[in-house]
Amino acid sequence: MVASFKLSTDVIPVKCSGAFALMDSLCRHGVKHIFGYPGGAILPIYDELYRSEARGELQHILVRHEQAAAHAADGYARATGKVGVCFGTSGPGATNLVTGIATAQMDSIPMVIITGQVSRAAIGSDAFQEIDIFGITLPIVKHSYVARNAKDIPWIIAQAFHIASTGRPGPVLVDIPKDVGLEECDYIPVNPGEVKLSGYRPTVKGNPRQITAAVELIASAKQPLLYVGGGAISSNAYGQIQELAERFQLPVTTTLMGLGAFDEHNPLSVGMLGMHGTAYANFAVCECDLLIAVGARFDDRVTGKLDEFAARAKVIHIDIDPAEVGKNRRPDIPIVGDVRQVLEQILQRARELDLPEGDTLTQDWLARIDRWKQDYPLVIPHPDETISPQEVIVEVGRQAPNAYYTTDVGQHQMWSAQFLKTGPNRWISSAGLGTMGFGLPAAMGAKVAVPDEEVICISGDASFQMNLQELATLAQYNIKAKIVIINNGWQGMVRQWQETFYGERYSSSNMEIGMPDFPLLAQAFGVKGLVVHHRSELSQAIAEMLNYDGPVLLDVHVKRDENCYPMVEPGKANSQMLGLQKQSPDIPKKEIVICNNCGTRNPADNHFCPECGSKL
Fold first, then answer.
1. In whole angstroms, what separates CA 275 from the centre of its chain?
2. Catalytic residue among 57, 59, 129, 205
């Protein structure tokens, strides 16, 4: 019999395997769900996982491909702000995780990835399913470990969770040889908060002199713009952003990663900026005199031609990662620190200086932006015979305004970013890497994380086919996520670029031949399938999808050649957008009112809001 001793409320064996040390350490760090796929090198860990599940400590979700395990852990992390965890075996199991690891790294998502490895004696011998996953993933992780001894596992796991979730979040890889999982050791648990790494101390508070300089610059700006990125989501800085914007009357634009950090129903919101951002956000960034970048990295899809991005503006750049500050654009006032804490410092300093609230300096600027909003609104086409992709997304958003939304990548992603108005952590999309196949497994992970919330994946017919095997995972665990396929029979964004920049030579972008019957495919997996061909069917089909108590796939056939506008051509300034549709000056402009219930802007001659039905 194995001897044991009592530690706090837990009974811990004096001698235990490396696999036990791993599973107990994961439980101590609050892990409730693991996404993974077993294999030879990781079997000792899965054997211990079997016992952990039997004790009710956690649940393992068996995916059908390791890439989906990484994306599901990613979606889990984005929906909760907690560290997502996935397992994969050695060799192809580990390499199948690579795309998901890179996705998380590009978007700064906290994850811990556990991979099996061949036994220590076989490392370097080209053993069966041996691969140097430590070396392969070095450029796409925040940190990584190889566990050489079972006794080191508790410290490695504690460090991995600490590193993944602090500073600028990111994925951490832990590679565990098979014999380390089997090896017995004297197990000494390490609990959260007990790790201190001497060489790792992220700066969280901003320099006081820089804070004062930033406040003075914000208070004196006549045409400021608050440019909010994913760092605001990571640091939960929503309240501070709203307070700063309203105190100084700052218009707010967000990146694709920053969606949800500021309420887009707020009159100060100008929506997303960049390649497929709103016209008024892109005009504002070109005309502003002060750009306040908050947790954003001046990505090329945001800036367009970098030399002309906010060319007349002074720049305040707030970011926890010092490598990002000044990387693409040199700021006038750089502030390294946690976004939430730095914004609290700025607000506190503004109060200490007794600066007035509701600054009148920006009134003319806000009025100018409001005219741009009226002149260049986002357009929802209603073609006579076919459904437009935009109206599908708008109708889904109308019927499920508080859902968590995941997307795949392409036109549908950009339309979703333009028209869905989401809250914090409710927008889950692969932004930096642009990973097709992300949407379904990310929705799976998000729904496991928040089972009582509505989770909807907006996908395209091409993207969906990248990881459609995960319908089986939805069915096995009755994960009640909903999938809406915007089906135009193309790789939509590729087709749009080929039309616009490559002389309409549609090379390998048509997906019609070989496309499955998606509802029939879903039913084959045990998932409810629905299809819509006509506008008259759309609203009812969405309602049926949302009301069904289980996973659903809704296949909506839309206009095949619809393009996503506005669009900034690569290498052009943000003000040089394709596809702008200015409201005709010959048409009298109606007075605009804002619905108190949903924030939709409506003509004053309407008695009821066309979006939510509330009386105006």
1. 18
2. 129
- Catalytic residue, chosen from 23, 35, 66, 418, is 66
Quick one: pLDDT at residue 593?
Answer: 53
What is the per-residue pLDDT for 582? Answer: 83
Question: Which one, of 408, 444, 460, 449, lies nearest residue 425 by Cα?
Answer: 449
Check 5, 15, 128, 515 and give the catalytic one: 128
309 is catalytic: no
Say which CATH architecture domain 4-186 belongs to: 3-Layer(aba) Sandwich (3.40)
Determine the longest span between alpha carbons in the chain, in angstroms: 89
The pLDDT value recorded for residue 600 is 56
Q: Which of 178, 373, 482, 528 is catalytic?
A: 178
Sequence spans of domains, the chain: 4-186, 208-375, 389-564, 584-616
CATH fold, domain 208-375, is: Rossmann fold (3.40.50)
Quick check: do 4-186 and 389-564 share a fold? yes
pTM value > 0.85: yes
Is 493 noted as a catalytic residue in this protein?
yes
For 447, counting Cβ atoms within 10 Å of its Cβ (0-12 exposed, 13-18 middle, 19+ buried), the class is: buried
Catalytic residue among 275, 493, 545, 567: 493
Predicted confidence at residue 601, as pLDDT, reads 52
Assign domain 389-564 to its CATH superfamily: Thiamin diphosphate (ThDP)-binding fold, Pyr/PP domains (3.40.50.970)
**10-residue block means of pLDDT along the chain (616 residues)?**
36 82 97 98 98 97 98 98 98 98 98 98 97 98 98 98 98 98 95 92 97 97 98 98 97 98 97 98 98 97 96 97 96 98 98 81 96 96 89 98 98 98 96 98 98 98 98 98 98 98 98 98 98 97 98 98 96 94 52 54 51 56
> Helices 98-107 and 66-80 meet at what angle, rounded to 10?
20
Q: Kindly write down the DSSP assignment for every residue of 356-406, as one continuous string.
A: PSS-GGGHHHHHHHHHHHHHSPPP----SSSB-HHHHHHHHHHH-TT-EEE
Catalytic: 32?
no
